[in-house]
Hints:
Layout: E1 7-10, H1 20-28, H2 46-61, E2 67-72, H3 74-85, E3 90-96, E4 113-122, H4 130-140, E5 141-149, H5 156-161, H6 164-167
Parallel strand pairs: 1-2, 2-3, 3-4, 4-5
Amino acid sequence: xxxxxxxxxxxxxxxxxxxxxxxxxxxxxxxxxxxxxxxxxxxxxxxxxxxxxxxxxxxxxxxxxxxxxxxxxxxxxxxxxxxxxxxxxxxxxxxxxxxxxxxxxxxxxxxxxxxxxxxxxxxxxxxxxxxxxxxxxxxxxxxxxxxxxxxxxxxxxxxxxxxxxxxxxxxx
Length: 172
């Protein structure tokens, strides 16, 4: 009996589910969902965009359980928010240069969660600060593996080099 792979990729702020990472996950991870969330619009306030995208994400995720969520940058913030509020729905969280250093993720507001969380963060990231992000992640996630890699915010070489089936523990 094959287990359904409930894998979803949550894209970054100005990206879509059909950018470099979304395309890679559709190719390499069987059944991976890569939804296009509400398009970035500089006219739209950050919190309105976050709320709108979170609503879209919740509508997808409420349909199944045991999700493995891959979140990139702003999508990493969204994946973390969802997992902290719904830890029983999430089996594993993989965060790529996640934007955790925001007021919405104040560690005082959340109980730390036990689910396995793996982070990849480029040491040359000019957009999301590594040190603050790692400190924040250590407060929110009890079961954390934080990989600081020789890469930038986009993490293209890193994402291409990962064995995703192994990381996501997918067996065919």
